Amino acid sequence: MNYMAKRQGTCSSWKGDSGSPWFKLLRHEILALHGGSSVNGAQFYPVCVQLTVTGGGSLNPSGLSFPGTYKQNDPGILFNVYQGDAVHLKYVPPGGPIASGLQF
Question: For residues 28 and 48, is the Cβ–Cβ distance under 8 A?
Answer without folding.
Answer: yes
